[in-house]
Specification:
Layout (H helix, E strand, L loop, with lengths): L2 H30 L8 H27 L2 H15 L19 H31 L10 H21 L5 H29 L6 H4 L1 H5 L6 H29 L7 H16 L6 H18 L8 H25 L7 H26 L5 H16 L6 H26 E7 L2 E8 L8 E6 L2 E7 L17 H7 L7 E5 L15 E6 L2 H9 L3 H4 L3 E6 L2 H7 L5 E6 L14 H9 L1 E10 L8 H10 L3 E7 L10 E7 L8 H6 E2 L23
Parallel strand pairs: 5-6, 5-8, 6-7, 8-9
Antiparallel strand pairs: 1-2, 2-3, 3-4, 9-11, 10-11, 10-12
Helix pairs in contact: 1-2, 1-4, 1-5, 1-6, 2-4, 2-13, 3-4, 3-6, 4-6, 4-13, 5-10, 9-12, 9-13, 9-14, 10-12, 11-12, 11-14, 11-15, 14-15
């Protein structure tokens, strides 16, 4: 085979595997998001799973290249590739739907293992395994450039999904398309494997026979292994920690997680493409400056204002990962140690991901892992530069500076906070805001940067509706116009429990809430539920799954209040969701969707779904200018009966919905948040 075709075969196999590796991540996560309340934590758990399986793939590559001949490697790998086809198509089975009592983290990990475990494992083995075979050919001298190629493919895959694939293809078709592409990859990889078996059966790596490579082929020492482990671990740590920080504490913008991951992959592309991109003379002072600036931002407003925080932390991630991955590239060994090098790199990435994604939510009461990661990054810099003048002392001084800012962040949070809790679904904080006039003092609940309700502390005012739920809001009007007798009201999303103030004697309010800590704080920190004259029923778990299992509830009003946070639960705003809601409504009942959102235009989505099902829909916009305790809101009211929305109070408050060109009714199989970004 000609040299050009050989290079193309190896490069094509590596590129295809990396492209599919990252394409499956958003695809499979989107399939299971509806089963876990649309929580942003689903993405983090999926990321941890992918990092751990990637580690397993790199360990496999290292083991087989060290212990088996190339022919035996080929036989084993071809066999596994053929077996993996049994997992296709990658469509999650309904048996994996949670009942509500399971630990979501363990359930997601088991689901992913049973659905895409072996295909993903084999995709993850391709890079190091094929590169080890390539090193035994005359083209092996530049083998590390293929690692850069694989990261470039990952970056292309990551960016193409929300822009090119998701807006134009239903979810089922995406899964089927990926499955066909994986089958094509299997054929391509089998071809590469068989070629490698024929050409390099027992041959030593060509690159290792070259004089300069042989001189560098001394075995790595213990310090090399430690740095091979620590640097990628910190890169992965900061990737997840900065993603958490900007999506939870800066701006609740969907897709914001794509930006840090793209920057992270770009640094791999640059650092392993060649030595020209990472220059210590520039990146060492830049790294020191960004460490201090990022740490300072954790306890200052510049770190929470989207206009300053987003550039600070995205640029900071780029500079810091250029340092980590640039130093890794400087320490890359001779090709004979290639798979061990990749194994340590992957192990480090998995350690960083597991620490932030799995350990931190159970150990830290809030998002402090970024501050801890910055301190550890400074210490790692001290270790890398310990042989340079002032390197060790400078790194230790930076670590101390970052630790001071972390301490100030913790003190600032705990000084004002009454309660601070954290679990799979994020961080909840309650705090009191006091004014010169005691009658204005309020207690607030926050989920990350999003307020989920507040209550006046003065006994005379604690039954007043506040924030998004005033009498002039869409939900306030819907409840006011409901039948005068005993009413049945459903609430999807509890928050502080504010809507319970509208409860009257004889009413029943049935609350659906996925986060048990929200129930706990609503009881211990607020009195809305206790003060309500209505009977309160509680359902713990995802509302959509619960409503699908329950007998019809005959609601007069159903408030769907789950679209203001960091991760919009799309499964609660699709045609199938609307059908589930209608099954539980009285003929004259009203479904109220809370669509107040700074970054997403959700009112046209609800209107399109309503129109497609022959329902009536109006948008009620409330400026709330008459009451400082209320916030400007948008609610879309939906009903079967036009008369339910024809009341004078609702008509006066209604405004026209601004249409979105080309918008189609969302379904479980086809929806696109990217198309409704404001």
């Amino acid at each position: 085979m000609k040299a050009g075709y050989v290079k193309l075969l190896f490069a094509g196999t590596i590129f295809t595997s990396a492209f599919l590796l990252f394409l499956v991540q958003p695809l499979i996560a989107k399939q299971i998001l509806p089963w876990f309340g649309g929580s942003a934590a689903v993405w983090s758990i999926c990321m941890v799973f992918f990092q751990v399986v990637l580690l397993a793939g790199y360990a496999y590559s290292d083991a087989v290249t060290r212990r088996l001949s190339v022919r035996m490697q080929a036989r084993l790998h071809v066999s596994l590739l053929l077996v993996s086809l049994a997992f296709l198509p990658i469509v999650t089975h309904a048996r994996w739907k949670p009942a509500g009592s399971e630990d979501p983290t363990l359930w997601i990990l088991g689901l992913l293992l049973g659905t895409i475990g072996l295909p993903y494992f084999l995709l993850s083995t391709t890079g190091p395994l094929v590169q080890s075979w390539l090193a035994r050919t005359p083209f092996g001298a530049q083998v590390y450039r293929y690692f850069s190629l694989s990261n470039l493919a990952s970056l292309a895959s990551l960016l193409s999904y929300p822009v090119l694939i998701e807006p134009h293809s239903p979810l089922l078709r995406q899964a089927q398309g990926w499955s066909w592409a994986y089958a094509a990859f299997v054929l391509l990889c089998i071809g590469t494997t068989l070629y490698a078996a024929r050409q390099g059966a027992a041959a030593p790596a060509v690159a290792a026979l070259q004089p300069d490579a042989a001189a560098a082929a001394k075995p790595p020492g213990a310090s090399d292994y430690l740095l091979w482990l620590a640097l990628p671990a910190l890169g992965s740590w900061l990737l997840l920690a900065i993603t958490n920080h900007i999506t939870q504490n800066v701006a609740a913008i969907p897709f914001l997680w794509v930006l840090p991951l793209s920057v992270y992959l770009l640094t791999f592309v640059l650092c392993f493409e060649s030595d020209r991109w990472y220059r210590r003379a520039f990146f060492l002072p830049a790294t020191a400056a960004m460490l201090v600036l990022c740490a300072f931002g954790l306890q200052d407003s510049i770190g929470s204002d989207v206009k300053t925080a987003l550039p600070i932390y995205v640029v900071g991630l780029f500079v810091l990962c250029m340092f980590f991955h640039g130093e890794m590239s400087r320490m890359r060994p001779a090709p004979r140690y290639l798979t061990r090098f990749y194994l340590m790199l992957s192990l480090g990435g998995a350690i960083g991901g597991v620490t932030v994604g799995l350990v931190a939510p159970h150990v830290l009461p809030a998002y402090y892992e970024l501050g801890v990661g910055l301190v550890l990054s400074a210490l790692a810099g001290a270790a890398v530069l310990r042989g340079r003048r002032f390197g060790l002392a400078g790194g230790m001084a930076l670590a101390a500076c970052c630790a001071v800012f972390l301490a100030l962040q913790v003190r600032g949070d705990t000084t004002d906070a009454r309660e601070m809790t954290r679990n799979f679904y994020g961080t909840l904080i309650t705090l009191d805001t006091r004014h010169d006039d005691p009658a204005q003092n309020v207690r607030q609940m926050y989920h990350g940067s999003v307020k989920h309700g507040e209550q006046f502390l003065a006994p005379a005012r604690r039954r007043e509706p506040t924030s998004y739920y005033g009498a002039s809001s869409g939900i306030g009007l819907a409840l006011a116009e409901a039948p005068q007798g005993p009413r049945r009201v459903g609430l999807i999303g509890l928050g502080a429990g504010t809507l319970a103030v509208y409860g009257r004697a004889g009413d029943l309010y049935r609350v659906y809430e996925i986060n048990p800590q929200v129930f706990a704080l609503a009881d211990s920190e607020f009195s809305f539920l206790d003060d309500s004259a209505a009977k309160i029923e509680r359902v713990l778990g995802d509302a959509r799954l619960a409503l699908e299992r329950e007998e019809p509830q005959a609601f007069d009003v159903l408030a769907v209040d789950a679209f203001s946070g960091d991760s919009v639960p799309i499964h609660l705003i699709t045609a199938e969701a609307m059908a589930a809601y209608l099954r539980h409504m009285k003929p004259d009942g009203v479904i109220a969707f809370h669509v107040t959102n700074r970054f997403l235009a959700l009112a046209p989505v609800v209107e399109k779904i309503a129109q497609a099902q022959g329902l009536q829909a109006v948008l009620v916009h409330d400026e709330a200018e008459h009451n400082d305790a209320l916030r400007r809101t948008d609610w879309v009211l939906v009903a079967r009966n036009p008369q339910s929305l024809a009341r004078e109070s609702i008509r006066r408050a209604s405004v026209a919905v601004t249409p979105i060109e080309g918008l189609q009714p969302w379904t479980d199989d086809f929806n696109n948040l990217f198309g409704v970004l404001k």
